[in-house]
Amino acid sequence: MEVHANQGILEGQMISMGFETHSEITLSRFTSEIQKSFEIEGENLSCYSLRSSIARHLGLENIVLASGEQLDKPRKKIDAIVQVVTDAVHNCDTPLTVDRLFGWHEKLFPPNASGMGFNNLYKIRVAQFRTDEEGPMRVVSGNSLDPTVHFEAPPADRIPSEMDTFIEWFNQKNPPVNSVLKSALAHLYFVTLHPFEDGNGRLARAVADMALCRGDNFGRVEVPDSLAGMPHFENRLRTDHLFSMSAQLCKERKDYYRHLEEAQNQDSMDVTDWLLWYVGCMNRAVLSVLSELKKSLFRKSFWEYADGFDLNVRQKKILALLLDDFKGKLTSSKYAKICKCSQDTAGRDMEKLVQANILRKGDAGGRSTEYMLVK
Predict the structure, then answer these.
(1) Least confidently predicted of 8-22, 94-108, 300-314, 361-375
(2) From CA 325, how far away is CA 331, in angstroms rounded?
(3) Which of these, 96, 176, 186, 351, has the minimum number of CB atoms within 10 Å of its CB?
(4) The model's pTM
(5) Which residues are registered as beta bridge partners of 220?
(6) CA–CA separation, 79 vs 360, rounded Å?
């Protein structure tokens, strides 16, 4: 399967990049996974607070501090959300149970003294299955006078037995099921049951992540001796969350909802189209990270080479802009404008970069000469 091949390439590249680089990427991916999972549901979480919380949970505070950032103070809500995802991923081999799901739900919606949570709009029952006291669980759009029903979940009285069936299937190891397909099926199965009053999409994505990590037996990266004794690592750091499925789902949100709706509303129980789309979406998530890694590796080797040429501040500024997909053509006059220097100074700066084989000239001559990075 192409997606597994690309996962293997990604894991190999991550391991070869060393502990610090790998840890930074893992931290960024974990942050993106949680942030985008909530963004899909219309809730925005602070990237700064999330990143700080994840760093503390993974024992990577020094990675954040080394980049010149500061850690945000602990935030109870953010920490609880991070605990859900890290539990699903790092304890993926621990059986999924109703009590475990109830615990996750309670962390997403901390209950008040009467046992009710709040989802930023209204009160909901926490750590218990929905009751449908206010009518069937439906996904609707449009106004209240003429709503469009996209999906109606099974009635509440079926949820306990249906969830028992789901959990039994999810924990089964025999016969083995490809981890990507199991993740796709678990996602669809859970969100179709819609067992809770709210939070079903977020929990479905956590369960799907759990299936991926459980099935793939992700590799591990050797941890420096200074960190090896920390409980998060033992002797090696997991290489999960190398990519963010939720970030890709958020990017393809319209297709995501459309394929879910089509799978939930067809009568034949044939979910092949959903599986094909989900696997493709995951592959696109992996390819996106591979593309970013390629750019990152190029930047690293580029600056290692460029640093050998005593470049001035102006030259470094222009090169940084070119590395970040500079818009338009770079000419000496544009260089002078950006760096606030004379045309002659711009010309000398650029000629030095050409001699160093960092820039190359286009075919046009004179002041309209275009300069490009040597790649």
Answers:
(1) 8-22
(2) 15
(3) 176
(4) 0.78
(5) 238
(6) 50
